[in-house]
Amino acid sequence: MRIGQAIDIHQLVENRDLILGGVKIEHEKGLLGHSDADVLLHAIAEAIIGALGLGDLGTHFPDTDEKYKGISSMILLAEVEKLMVNHNYEIGNIDSTILIEEPKLVKYKEEMEKNIAEVLKCDVSQVNVKATRGEKLGFVGEKKGVAALATVVLKEREKVEYVHI
Ligand code: ZN
Fold first, then answer.
1. What's the gap in Å between 158 CA and the centre of ligand 1?
2. How remote is the CA of residue 7 from the centroid of ligand 1, in Å?
3. Residue 122: which domain range?
4. How far is the CA of 37 from the centre of ligand 1 (A)?
5. Which residues on neighbouring strands pair with residue 9, listed in sequence order?
6. What is the pTM of this model?
7. Per the domain annotation, does 165 fall within a domain?
């Protein structure tokens, strides 16, 4: 078994969609970033890369690369899934927390977990998404940004298979 953790932070700005866990959230602002800035998927993807001992998300998907401009982070996470399989690991479980002042994410949580489980080819029971507020403190509480934390446990796969990236 291997364990990985990660944190990601993006700025909240006007004229951007708010995408979390591959779900478009109704909100007047969105997250700024080179890709769709899905802070939750970035944290999960980076935690998997960390568990594999392969550095960070930026090394694998540089934000200077035009091919990642505006890209859905679901695609980045799918690439990380291939990387994980090629290293002969699969998801044990994922726990994650989104730090966001508003809106409330309760109604989106199930869809986020379903999206993540689908891309990572695991059961939805292996994925947990939580959200907490900043209580008006710091960049989260002041609605200047959103952060996400993820912890991932990977299990060694019994059968070796290779997926071409
Ligand atoms: Zn990010």
1. 32
2. 9
3. 2-156
4. 5
5. 147
6. 0.94
7. no
